[in-house]
Structure of Acetylornithine deacetylase/Succinyl-diaminopimelate desuccinylase:
Amino acid sequence: MTIIENYLEENKDRFLNELFGLIRIPSISSVSAHKPDMYKAAEYWKELLLSSGADKAEVFETAGNPVTYAEKIIDPSKPTVLVYSHMDVMPVEPLELWESAPFEPEVRDGKIFARGADDDKGQGMMHAKAFELMVKTNTLPCNVKFMIEGEEEIGSPNLGQWCEEHKDMLKADVILVSDTTMINPETPTITTGLRGLAYWQVEVTGPNRDLHSGMFGGAVANPINVLSKMIAQMTDENGHITIPGFYDDVLEVSKEERELMAEIPFQLEDYKKALDIEEVAGESGFATNERTGIRPSFDVCGIWGGYTGEGAKTVLPSKAYAKISSRLVPNQDHEKIAELFKQHFESIAPNTVKVEVSPLHGGQAYVCPIDLPAYRAAEQACVDVFGRRPVPNRSGGSIPIISTFEEILGIKSILLGFGLESDAIHSPNENFPLEQFYKGIRTIPRFYKYFAEMA
Amino acid sequence: MTIIENYLEENKDRFLNELFGLIRIPSISSVSAHKPDMYKAAEYWKELLLSSGADKAEVFETAGNPVTYAEKIIDPSKPTVLVYSHMDVMPVEPLELWESAPFEPEVRDGKIFARGADDDKGQGMMHAKAFELMVKTNTLPCNVKFMIEGEEEIGSPNLGQWCEEHKDMLKADVILVSDTTMINPETPTITTGLRGLAYWQVEVTGPNRDLHSGMFGGAVANPINVLSKMIAQMTDENGHITIPGFYDDVLEVSKEERELMAEIPFQLEDYKKALDIEEVAGESGFATNERTGIRPSFDVCGIWGGYTGEGAKTVLPSKAYAKISSRLVPNQDHEKIAELFKQHFESIAPNTVKVEVSPLHGGQAYVCPIDLPAYRAAEQACVDVFGRRPVPNRSGGSIPIISTFEEILGIKSILLGFGLESDAIHSPNENFPLEQFYKGIRTIPRFYKYFAEMA
């Protein structure tokens, strides 16, 4: 695609300067003193998208930080791509560890160093400039919409509501997001799965007050002993979760996708060394990246009860508590799982104690099938630029807003990220290789092209 | 024994006044401002014992509060009784719950109300006045020594050392202690057993840092999950502790003593109701008072790890901790048990984690065999006064100083208490029924008589 290369060559320094201008706005969403910077960033994005070729752009208020929306509708009968990114960044502390000022971008060793260089100003800018490229070279094959939010780093507390209120405006065929990483610089990566979450607090009550462990120990059930036994029963010796019906809806992953996942470079010895563990653990029959990517988990996130101070105080406590979570996989409904856990956990409680289970939080998993036309389009675009087929990567984590988009807007997202592990996002000396920035700009127009052809 | 009744009748008001004088000294050992009161109490005891008939009496310094020692040696070839009591009392807060001033004794409804009325000024005074009675009526059949300490309520931190330094002076055939309770006013009670204790802190380390429970959950062992499984394995479905060798030295209790224990009035429904539990728990094949009295226990006194604040924070923590204790029974050596636990707990750790076990504390159990002459003497004395055979009661708690006496001085203690559950020791409105006070004074000379005959 000579057109892309030529336009990029002529404009690459300007693209970088436009990114630098965005980076210089210290738009830290978690610090209220930076509220004015959020508006500056929103206006910057509005101007950026208008100058890049948008028909219209607008800064929308929410209960929190603003959202910048822009669009270019070339033909209502053509497919529409909705680009999602965020203008906010993480705090920069500890400042003394930065080798250059976090909000004064500097290029060293072929990398842009600055807060937001990758996450997500650098990755967001690739979309703005790829869009400009297509507009200015008359190669834009789809309608485009941009939704740039200002609260991603604090959990997107208001974007769901805003989507709800602007459903019609946001109508699209696919959401395109660059906010994830590649496995390594040679291996393009499409994140195809995110896990969901269910989270409970449990309270086990034994006697109605703390007891003398001498006078009562051995004759009255100790709620910590009981809670430990109950937690122990929740998983079996094969690492299976024992809640009846827990796996009923788990989406089995195709042989093709598991084979692609197996190609992801993974050095078990390095992994164990980095965590300083002798052995990994988990469900029998699954590899480490499958255990985190396509299988649910059961983790006690916190536990407490009795005496936890210094020394040897004896007590038979009245209560013991735990915070327990399960990462869920596609097709598992977090509300159904929350209920299954509650029923089961209460059912295994011995009648020497009382048990209370409170579901605290939940979110749905997300999956992007690899036979989706948009997935195939992204795949082909990567093949063109990187010379190899991307790997579909199931991330063990949760990006709740992606599931929310699917729930509210009914649109699948393609998570096509160009960041690298070494980019140190959220840390001092965040950086983004120029190579990745420009490769992103090369890949995105190809995605549009293939998507327009396939959709 | 008309002699006893006559002397008591003539002197009962004076006895009470002498107790009141002792009570009026606010000898709270845990409050340093009351240090001068400790010396006042020690001097009061010295004068009391001299006026009651002791040949000599002395206030000894220790690293902490003083000890009053007194003796009357009538004939070195006769048996010697060493009386142990304590002059210190617990704090009195909350003051507003007292119906009369805690250090101004008042008799209401046949009970003395004051801090220390029972524990242990009232019970100690019984011994002083029983001693006087025997001396003044020329019926003292043994040598007598008194050891009145000032730090019982803060764990007797200096008495062991003092005993060590005065072994010769303290030589005796039995230690007689009134610092325990009767099961009810009709049932004389001799506490024949105290449990020992072993106490550990355990630390389970998984990965070398807290991990993202999405990125790693399901693939890396969670130390809280693991700790729960390890604790769960420490006891089986019959309530047995699974540490190999744990029960090897447990003293089996004779059929006769178990039958006597079974006579102790116990209302399971009331017990459960008071604790608000549906069922008791414990080792199969043993009654509730046997579970606390003659069998060891395994209680987690504290547990903590991960996120324990408000809300639903996810984390796969690096570490989990527990404080674990076992109450031990006679013949179990706390140091041996500490080592057995450590070995076993480390051996059941999966190789996905590292486990560290730190023994924090320990103490030996105590048992008084019911065929000991001194026990039989106390039993017969109770039969004379209460008209029924006392029950041998195994307390689940630990009074470390009693085991210390046996270790250092090589002397068994007879725990012959006249307190009642309703005496509210350590609480507001502590009291001691006059009836119990005088019954104690009636019982003690009979103990001396039978002991002199049997020893």
